[in-house]
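ok, trying the design again with the full structure, not the truncated one.
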């Protein structure tokens, strides 16, 4: 693969700048790598129990994906072959290793659990590359660990090969526990902490759009686009992108760890492959597809389908309905990486399956460490969860909701003894059907012009990722740039307002381009005018489809960040909307938006009623146990029912899947605002067909294609590709090639570099790309090695089509493939698609050019207003009408001249002349042609697809 970018070499810093840089790096690293795992501390009765450790290197995976995982098992003296114990797997955070959770493992082992820790692939002394909790790799490795535990005679079994086991982890490890419970039904209980529901929504958030307000922190899911969380993403990539020491050598030697002493391989530099060196230095320990996705995101700041596919496959969001293990969700209120909305989505998705879910919010997160008291309380909570669900000991912890008591005080630097006051509710609002209560606070303010500066600089400063505690130490200082924001205030509050969750407000926005990137915040303004941004959190908004007329703006529903905060009496609640934020990528183009409040808009602030518990330590835990005991009866019933119906949900493969590459069955896509884009759509495509998807603008064609590719989910119905469900990240989608909604090409790279970078993101060998064949089909020629910025629109289109054909996919999906092509290129493309389908592959073409569909496709589905109005072969759709197809001998121009003189209307087509006879009979037409010396080979009924289309759409 050609290099896509040179290495970035930082200039040396001197003096104070170097010290500041070192401090910043250290704090950022601490925020990312040293997030404490809230696992149980040893109880006094068991703390002194003898614990032995067993280190081993365990193989996992096969072929090129085989790795060696560095493991340690902590065995309490009480766990024997005669008296086996439940097990717990502890997963570490991103950038850590098994050593990161060693103290926690020893504590759990002191409580009588067999505890397994290991360094994930790409971390510590384990080999392999980082896949971001990919089900094919990291999740499969977790199953290997369960296999290992099942072979031990000191581990309790539920069945042969099935250990009694819980999984806990924070951040990276928390997502692994969720995904592990979804993919391996041997997991009996999980305690994921400060982790994600959707990596796409977390790293490309957009909190615009209607939401179901039943739960306190529900947040809109990212749609087609989001705002790139630039600083956090860079921190993640930087933590794993540059291997050093034996990590670098392992990347270059395939993981060899012998010969050099002390685990360092003895390597002859002359034997190293230069491409491998470049790959290791550019991508470090990341897999190539993740590296490619980050490079595209960092360069463009945009969310592409390929990036979304990489992030979605590592997201629990798509598999929550498989989780039947009781789940304790712990999320921090001081977290600009994975906010409260991520835990909210996990809670809703898991509880919908009838699985017991308990939600705990605490005062901490990726931006600020929890106090020592809070950490101890969280450990006790996790201990109670595992004790009850793995051992059947203790009181049922139930399915309640615990959160900090709202105060007007921000987070403090460092940790202190004791814990914060908390409130506990019977259930997490919305999971049992009861919606969260909201307080409507009227806002006022005019319409503001909001300027976006060129390149997004200077930018507003809210909080530095990972440095929330430092921000708090500076008094919650933020910087808003004059001219770059609009502000809307409440009247001074006559009563305190508690906000527990995500508030909502409706704005009125217009933009000259119809698009805008904005950042919404909820400030607490004191009586003296000073303002504080609770938790330093921001809600990015990626807006499209906006009005270009400032006098008729578009109303936009906005969900503000999820917080726990009290706005005191006499304070003002301020919604501030800015055009920049230094933590996110901003558009390079300058612009001016008009931002105001929608008519009658209010700030809807959520609140949750709960019982205030004690302040810290063991005393608080026993009080909490007392409260939960009173609420535990229903939880016991749920737990018993769950135990009786525990199962793994498996997808059923359709038996005719290879003969029917695509099947839509009763597919409907509706949005929260009530708009239905697609309604009850059913059709199927057979192998070797070229299917045309026809419909006017707004018919639902693109929405249908996006559902097919797993980019959005149907509200109802099913879509199957080769017999398998077409869900986000589904392996079967690797058999699909697509070109939908723009080329997505990187202008600073050549066409060849774009194709190779795209293919690298699939993680498959370059020789499988059939690059030369795709290039020849698209007719790119010598322009392939020129930069894309020099291409015409037609050339960009052809590169994008070649990209879709890489790997010669079995199902090819093209949206408006002939846009920008000239007539000879269109003719060539038509033949390409015919030839492609003739090999037994299947092609779907969506186009507004009816003549192209008519001459290219064998079958047609016609849509209007989101519904199918006709389906069949082109001939069946066209049927018969007032036109004929005429094939003549000799000069067709002479034939057209004769027929036009008789009042007929004539159009040229590839197969002959299409003639609207009008009052002229067929016999008269043939006689006139013969008399004029024009021979007639064929005359048959003919109606153009355009006629049929207009008739069908008009009828709908």
């Amino acid at each position: 693969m050609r290099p896509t970018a040179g290495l970035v070499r930082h200039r040396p810093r001197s003096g104070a700048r170097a010290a500041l840089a070192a401090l910043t790096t250290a704090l950022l690293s601490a925020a990312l790598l040293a997030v404490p795992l809230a696992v149980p501390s040893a109880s006094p009765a068991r703390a002194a129990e003898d614990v032995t450790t067993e280190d081993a290197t365990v193989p996992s995976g096969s072929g090129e994906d085989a790795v060696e995982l560095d493991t340690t098992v902590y065995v309490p003296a009480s766990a024997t072959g005669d008296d086996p114990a439940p097990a717990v797997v502890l997963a570490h955070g991103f950038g850590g290793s098994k050593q990161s959770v060693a103290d926690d493992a020893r504590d759990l082992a002191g409580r009588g659990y067999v505890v397994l820790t290991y360094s994930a692939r790409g971390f510590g002394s384990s080999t392999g590359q980082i896949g971001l909790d990919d089900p094919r790799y990291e999740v499969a490795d977790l199953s290997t660990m369960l296999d290992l535990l099942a072979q031990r005679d000191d581990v309790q079994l539920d069945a042969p090969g099935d250990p009694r086991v819980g999984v806990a982890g924070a951040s990276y490890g928390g997502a692994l526990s969720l995904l592990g419970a979804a993919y391996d039904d041997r997991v009996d209980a999980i305690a994921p902490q400060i982790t994600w529901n959707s990596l796409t929504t977390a790293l490309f958030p957009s909190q615009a759009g209607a939401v179901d307000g039943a739960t306190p922190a529900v947040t809109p899911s990212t749609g087609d686009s989001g705002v790139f969380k630039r600083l956090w993403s860079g921190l993640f990539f930087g933590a794993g992108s540059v291997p050093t020491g034996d990590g670098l050598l392992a990347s270059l030697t395939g993981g060899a760890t012998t010969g050099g002493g002390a685990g360092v391989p003895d390597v002859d530099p002359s034997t190293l492959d230069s491409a491998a060196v470049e790959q290791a230095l550019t991508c470090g320990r990341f897999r190539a597809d993740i590296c490619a996705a980050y490079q595209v995101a960092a360069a463009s700041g945009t969310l592409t389908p390929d990036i979304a596919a990489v992030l979605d496959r590592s997201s629990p969001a798509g598999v929550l309905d498989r989780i039947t293990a009781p789940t304790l969700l712990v999320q921090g209120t001081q977290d600009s990486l994975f906010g409260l909305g991520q835990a909210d989505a996990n809670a809703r998705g898991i509880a919908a399956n009838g699985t017991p879910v308990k939600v705990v919010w605490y005062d901490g997160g990726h931006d600020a460490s929890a106090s020592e008291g809070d950490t101890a309380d969280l450990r006790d909570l996790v201990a109670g969860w595992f004790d009850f669900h793995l051992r059947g000991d203790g009181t049922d912890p139930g399915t309640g909701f615990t959160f900090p008591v709202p105060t007007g005080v921000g987070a403090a630097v460092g940790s202190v003894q004791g814990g914060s006051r908390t409130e506990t509710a019977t259930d997490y609002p919305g999971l049992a059907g009861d919606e969260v209560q909201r307080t409507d606070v009227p806002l006022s303010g005019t319409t503001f012009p909001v300027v976006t500066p060129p390149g997004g600089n200077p930018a507003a400063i809210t909080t530095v990722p990972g440095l929330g505690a430092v921000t708090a130490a500076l008094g919650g200082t933020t910087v808003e740039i004059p001219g770059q924001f609009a502000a809307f205030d409440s009247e001074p509050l006559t009563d305190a307002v508690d906000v527990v969750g995500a508030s909502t407000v409706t704005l009125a926005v217009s933009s000259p381009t119809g698009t805008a990137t904005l950042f919404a915040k909820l400030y607490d303004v004191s009586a003296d005018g000073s303002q504080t941004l609770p938790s330093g959190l921001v809600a990015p908004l990626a807006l499209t489809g906006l009005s270009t007329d400032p006098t008729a703006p578009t109303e936009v529903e906005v969900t503000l960040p999820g917080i726990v905060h009290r706005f005191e009496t006499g304070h003002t609640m301020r919604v501030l909307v800015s055009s920049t934020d230094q933590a996110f990528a901003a558009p390079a183009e300058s612009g001016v938006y008009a931002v105001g409040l929608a008519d009658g808009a209010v700030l809807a602030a959520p609140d949750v009623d709960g019982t205030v518990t004690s302040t810290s330590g063991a005393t608080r835990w026993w009080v909490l146990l007392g409260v939960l005991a009173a609420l535990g009866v229903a939880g016991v019933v749920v737990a018993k029912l769950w135990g009786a119906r525990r199962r793994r949900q498996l997808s059923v493969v359709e038996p005719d899947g290879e003969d029917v590459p695509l099947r839509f069955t009763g597919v409907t896509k509706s949005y929260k605002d009530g708009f239905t884009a697609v309604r009850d759509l059913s059709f199927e495509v057979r192998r070797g067909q070229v299917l045309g998807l026809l419909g006017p603008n707004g018919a639902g064609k693109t929405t249908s294609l996006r559902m097919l590719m797993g980019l959005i989910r149907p509200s109802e119905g099913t879509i199957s590709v080769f017999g398998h469900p077409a869900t986000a990240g589904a392996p079967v989608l690797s058999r699909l090639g697509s070109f939908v909604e723009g080329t997505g090409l990187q202008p600073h790279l050549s066409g060849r570099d774009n194709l190779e970078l795209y293919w690298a993101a699939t993680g498959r060998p370059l020789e499988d790309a059939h690059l030369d064949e795709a290039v020849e089909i698209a007719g790119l020629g010598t322009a392939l090695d020129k930069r894309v910025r020099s291409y015409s629109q037609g050339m960009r289109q052809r590169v994008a089509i070649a990209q879709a054909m890489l790997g010669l996919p079995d199902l090819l999906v093209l949206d408006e493939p002939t846009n920008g092509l000239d007539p000879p290129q269109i003719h060539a493309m038509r033949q390409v698609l015919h030839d492609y389908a003739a090999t037994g592959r299947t092609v779907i073409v969506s186009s507004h050019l009816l003549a192209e569909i008519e001459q290219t496709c064998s079958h047609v589905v016609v849509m209007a207003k989101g519904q199918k109005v006709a389906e069949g072969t082109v001939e069946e759709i066209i049927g018969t009408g007032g036109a004929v197809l005429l094939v003549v001998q000799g000069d067709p121009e002479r034939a057209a001249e004769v027929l036009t003189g008789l009042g007929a209307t004539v159009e040229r087509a590839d197969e002959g002349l299409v003639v609207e006879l009008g009052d002229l009979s067929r016999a008269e037409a043939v006689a006139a042609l013969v008399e004029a010396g024009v021979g007639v080979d064929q005359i048959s009924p003919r109606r153009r697809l355009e006629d049929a289309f207009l008739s069908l759409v008009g009828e709908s």
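Keeping the full-length input from now on. The chain has five domains: 38-219+315-425, 230-313, 438-607, 662-876, 880-955.
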